[in-house]
Protein 1
Amino acid sequence: MNNIVSACGAEQGLITVDQALDLIRDKIQVLETENLKLNQALNRYLAEDIYSSINLPLFSQSAVDGYALSAPSTIEPNRSFALVGEIQAGHASELQLTQGQAVRIFTGAKIPLGTTTVARQEIVKIIDSSRIEITESLKAHTDIRDVGEEIAVGDLLASSGQQLSVGAIASLSMAGIQTVNVFQYPKVAVVITGDEVAASVEDFAAGKIFDANAPLIQAWFQQQSQQVEIFHVADTEHAVTALIQTLSKAYDLILTTGGVSVGDYDFIRPVTLNLGFEQIFWKVKQKPGKPIFFATLQRADHSACYLLGLPGNPAAVYMGMQIYTSAVLNALQGQKQPPNWFSAVLTHDVKMDARERFLRMSASFDQSILKVKSLSKQQSHMLSNLMQANCLVRIPAGQTMLEGQIVQGLFIGS
Amino acid sequence: MNNIVSACGAEQGLITVDQALDLIRDKIQVLETENLKLNQALNRYLAEDIYSSINLPLFSQSAVDGYALSAPSTIEPNRSFALVGEIQAGHASELQLTQGQAVRIFTGAKIPLGTTTVARQEIVKIIDSSRIEITESLKAHTDIRDVGEEIAVGDLLASSGQQLSVGAIASLSMAGIQTVNVFQYPKVAVVITGDEVAASVEDFAAGKIFDANAPLIQAWFQQQSQQVEIFHVADTEHAVTALIQTLSKAYDLILTTGGVSVGDYDFIRPVTLNLGFEQIFWKVKQKPGKPIFFATLQRADHSACYLLGLPGNPAAVYMGMQIYTSAVLNALQGQKQPPNWFSAVLTHDVKMDARERFLRMSASFDQSILKVKSLSKQQSHMLSNLMQANCLVRIPAGQTMLEGQIVQGLFIGS
């Protein structure tokens, strides 16, 4: 871990991580909604409450493979019934049972009118093609799934704001939901700045470095089943201006990497402000990623373009995607809850730093307690510990944290 | 939660969940490997160890925006240097510093030969265009990132078997890795059986139900950025035979839903065995999903086709995807570790059942302790609690579990 207490952490007037996240949630204007087929809506946020228009089960049905019976009360062993037919799952039947009659039935098949109970096939002896016998005592209303016992017409199935997980898609499908009203997913452009970043092998020359940021951001969006367009731009005011101006007309969010500090070649912020963007925040008291920049441009049609400027070092980009880009994408889709931080026990001391830190750690469960352990190589130009890390842990500013203390964090996938 | 102790749980000779998972890992023949561009390899498993062919950093560089200096030892305040040029990040320089010289430099730029330390711009006073003064004491070798300090040529970057997460892709990109040798992702066909399942709105009629299984499986694969082909088949021996025979020639894995029990219309197992598949297991002592079926067909070219037959009820399909399909897909890609079970504390008693159960629960952290709480509507034909569930929890067979006891589970996404 990086034990250096950086002098620039002492800079006055920086906002905190939580203040930055609050600003994202407060200032962002939610996107329009759209109607999608349910099978196109994975991971989207609902823009409507959904009520059931059907009962689930749709009809009273057998819970087992066996026989639907008609009998006035509990059936004693050795009682026999007249077998009058068969009902396969998925096939409608006009049959109506009268007392003493039975019908062969299968799991999920609609029980005929007159059914009082169902005997699973394990307790049925077949006498001949027209007669069966029940071998055990059997109560009324056994192994019947009643119409509407899970969901009744008019029940709330899902609430506005809820994210459509795999399970939610399955559950709504079962209730016959075919389309959903959801918030639009933002159109995102990614701008990679920095002459030191090689865009391809051909670009690679002394003084340039391999680009981790474009692959990182592309993979991050791919992980959420989303595509992004990636643009590389040279470190000149003219090139940056032309690109941002063009993108600001067509995209809801422009993500940039690099060029947001105070170096002589850090054009993102001045260019953006010149183009009419309004700064929401610049610089957060955090490590990595202090010079993060967030701004908005109101367009003539009253829609907005947002620009999230991540610092160029890959550790800041990685943290920025997990913490800030997530928050921006969610807020644009009306989801303004804080991230789902876990709490965990530190397995070792962590030295104080003037800024809040996000450390890449390894988390594991020990008898229900989540324990986190820092990995080496935490500096902002280093990423190799992401091969082992499974979480980002927040270390509060200005505090020495001791082994056994509780910290917050986020899982970041395997 | 379902408190019914099912009679069929007492069935003799069923294997346990862990035995079934062991059989999957033992019996599966790993797929061939392929070379992919790194940016196409998200979530794949490496089939090679990867060693670095470069140093990281690639060259010694400045860690800050400031001035590279040449001085024999610690620099005292007010010492001045001759400014001889500027090096921007990404631009090579032939400059060589001699004692008493300085060069303007930016974060990530290659330090020139002769550099002994770097002064961040905050501690530098510009005297004129050719002279600067250091305002604070400055030690040798400050704010220099040394060549190879993170990774040296020949260091192991990633090991065979490791999954390529977003962080891994970023980290390998930074080390200049362009292509990777990974295990092929299995070609998967999904077969939805059951005349009771409506394939479309037009199919929907009395006695049919809305299909949760196809949307569930499609969304599950979409969540992992994978496509699958989905086929619906009628409940006839002829139709099932024709389809499975065709698919078994072209796919690595056939996933089926329904038709694996002992009902008169349960054709999957007999048809599969008739086609020459060898049964690996059938029936697991679990709830839901007892009649799960797993088989393999050796093809003439020595490759294999596997068939995983999930029971048709949606709760069994959901559990089957999370527990068994995951294990099969991983094993086909050479990943034979058990799932990454969490451990958590039960917040209430859970009644005994003869079979091991997978209950859909809600998990949350309380001061680093993960606590799980069961949701209502756990029966196998019910899915609506997936709107709230965020984990599947294993309840051991034949034990009453008490509040405060530790259980294992898996997170299942938001």
Note: The longest strand of chain A covers residues 356-366.
Protein 2
Amino acid sequence: MSRSAHDSPRPASKEGKAMHPDLLNDNILKTQYAVRGELYTRAQELAKSGGEVIYTNIGNPQQLGQEPLVFNRQVLALLLAPFLLDHPSASALFPREAIDRARELLAAFGGRMGAYSDARGAPAIRQQVAAFIEARDGQPADPEDIYLTDGASVGVKYALNALIRDGNDGILCPIPQYPLYSAAIQLFGGKLVPYYPEEDAGWDLNLEALRGAVKKARAEGTVLRALAFINPGNPTGQVLTRETLRELIAFAHDEGLVLLADEVYQPNIYQDEKPFVSAKRVLREMGEPWASSVELASFHTVSKGMLGECGLRGGYVEWVNIHPGAQAELYKVASVNLCPNTVGQATVSLMVAPPTGDSEAARQYAKQYEDSLASLRRRAHVMTDAFNGLEGASCNFTEGAMYSFPRLHLPAKAIQAAKEAGKDPDTFYCLALLADTGIVTVPGSGFGQVEGTFHLRTTILPQEDVMHEFVDKLRTFHKSFMAKYKD
Amino acid sequence: MSRSAHDSPRPASKEGKAMHPDLLNDNILKTQYAVRGELYTRAQELAKSGGEVIYTNIGNPQQLGQEPLVFNRQVLALLLAPFLLDHPSASALFPREAIDRARELLAAFGGRMGAYSDARGAPAIRQQVAAFIEARDGQPADPEDIYLTDGASVGVKYALNALIRDGNDGILCPIPQYPLYSAAIQLFGGKLVPYYPEEDAGWDLNLEALRGAVKKARAEGTVLRALAFINPGNPTGQVLTRETLRELIAFAHDEGLVLLADEVYQPNIYQDEKPFVSAKRVLREMGEPWASSVELASFHTVSKGMLGECGLRGGYVEWVNIHPGAQAELYKVASVNLCPNTVGQATVSLMVAPPTGDSEAARQYAKQYEDSLASLRRRAHVMTDAFNGLEGASCNFTEGAMYSFPRLHLPAKAIQAAKEAGKDPDTFYCLALLADTGIVTVPGSGFGQVEGTFHLRTTILPQEDVMHEFVDKLRTFHKSFMAKYKD
């Protein structure tokens, strides 16, 4: 946490440097960010020296070959080169629907993609997002409650920055968690308060464990401000049921917590039993007192789903039941950032309002979307089956999102060898995997895990034509690793 | 500043809300952001009710009709729709140079604009930026010291976040200043320490006043961390001479301060006597001990200059003489944000490496660029001449950047009327101007000014075909305002 002004002043420089690493903001120094940590650095070195590297450490679909949706890119190209809209040859390159959509979207930006928009994003796109949410949930949504952002993480940071006032303020996070949460909570000087979903129950919520976490934190003087959850789960891949969401919402109500609903993987669902249901929908369907009182922020992005447009940085947050005065403060913070990038905003529009009707463009879009989803579904099975086929590993099925998070039952000798190397056992395993195969994963310790358990996270994103080779490499490595350290 | 954990805990909710405006992070609540403050809100209301509004409150060139550089947009369109590169009809719509450049740039992103890049931006573009700086300064630049960002403000915030540790830490800022600085310093819980360039000397640095500011701040217990300056000036429009930059650099060296050089308007120069000279160049030309010791961060952007691509959010920061350990911390913070948007990154590439040689594309680019610069230069004259032609106003010439910042010598009766309305006198003037003419400006109080002086900031961006009408409106309003409140 920050020191306050009445503490004794800190040194202004060291070794002639004001910007000395020992003299920077403590919260930055304390922040850890595992997704691009030691494994990533080693992988970069390996790639530099000419080794083949397979990046399954980060949900970056296009990096591993997922093609962008063609219609979206046609529209974006026209938005950036609007002088093509009236060009006689344009129809040779762009379907009519893309040209029409580009005209419509361009108008949302006052005809100028290069101008700042409102800091919350272009009003017409915020309306489209509201319409998308209404259609998804069967419940009303207000464009005034929607802020477009440069990817979902910006929205998450707005919420955490506003909520965290000092080192007493705590945010409940599932463990394992996507490390944006641990990093941002530390950057803003708050406390991450862990709660543990149950691996043996398919990573479902354990309400008793959550209650225990709250009780313990409060006994230690922590002021709980919010509860974060990720649905579908990252890194754990579970999809939450309506019943679990009802429990979470009732709990947030009883305990006075803001719900931070990371719903960025909502289109990535790989089974039929548990469809995605939004927290907003459940909250409204529960009726009063929950419907109009439980504070909720829901985050979405163009980076995941079937768009996979990570590099374009587009997303939105919906503020539900948030005090208008607090929303005004969030608007002010957004204003200091001027505006979310307009291409990312346009991509949000294309995500929430895909082409419809009986056109060739709409048919092509639907086919590309459905093929991509079906392929991811197959890959979710291949990946989890592969891990479950390994001796000393077990893996819940990836019901949704983009990751498998197998548990590794490492032999005592491997744990001892890791200790001698000064590494966490799962980091030790992942480093060996990288060295042997070029596969970059993230150790479970980067997300947090129950003490004494070890995991790794891999994406399910290798394309199907290389997936079998990927699985073979993994299997061969695992066998030899386990044999080497056999008890 | 933040409270620390040993203070008594703050309430968790009020009126049933955890996210109640009284219970948010103090630094957010205290932050003010004038560029989109009361004037902007009133302007939006006016626009909604159908009134004509002229937005000169913000440097948003395309909003007022500046056309984007065609070549840049051709390349960006191709980057987003790479399937066009091999299309037989592409050459009907795109010049060969744009197609070649798009292929080259696409390779910098591994062929995928939709993939995350490195958090510091694509290495090949960071190399282009380094080459641009070398050519500009005649001094070496290292791509490892260059981070691409979503606009310059992100880089400014990285530096301030790292430097500010607690409420004792102070950042020297020129007053008047671009309110990003005051807002970000407040958001990070630090102290803005004002120093006052001299209006009567064309807003040149007053070294004695700066020394006085430092002495006073230190006597009050403030630990000074950095000195920010804006060259060319915003809102004040001055261009700093080499001599002034030498003074600033020597001062930073003697006082152990990091220099934060906001050089985003470096291409916007409207006179020949004082060309833009970068702080990096002067620092290196000064030789030792300054050349390899003075810590400097220089910020640049695609939002200004002749590109005016505000909406695309692209920029960079060059870290000069910054400790490698501190740079690693900055890289970590950037990693939590995943990566700057790839379209903004590509736009930075196009800014630093425009088309060259004897092609039609290069000629067209050069013509469009030069016409735009010449037009801005004429407008800088028209605007400042207009203010100097008004009774009770005086205005330094806009030597660079995009703004005029006239001083208003308001009559006592106007000041009294403002007081009765509960407004700052310059805000009172600007609100009346908006109500009468639809012209949106920003009062000097939003930037800070010497006590008892009153100013406003307007951009010089109205296009030339409407500039005379703009000036007429201004003149008519001013005359009637001054007559109304005549002493």
Note: Chain A has three domains: 29-51+365-484, 70-107, 113-352.
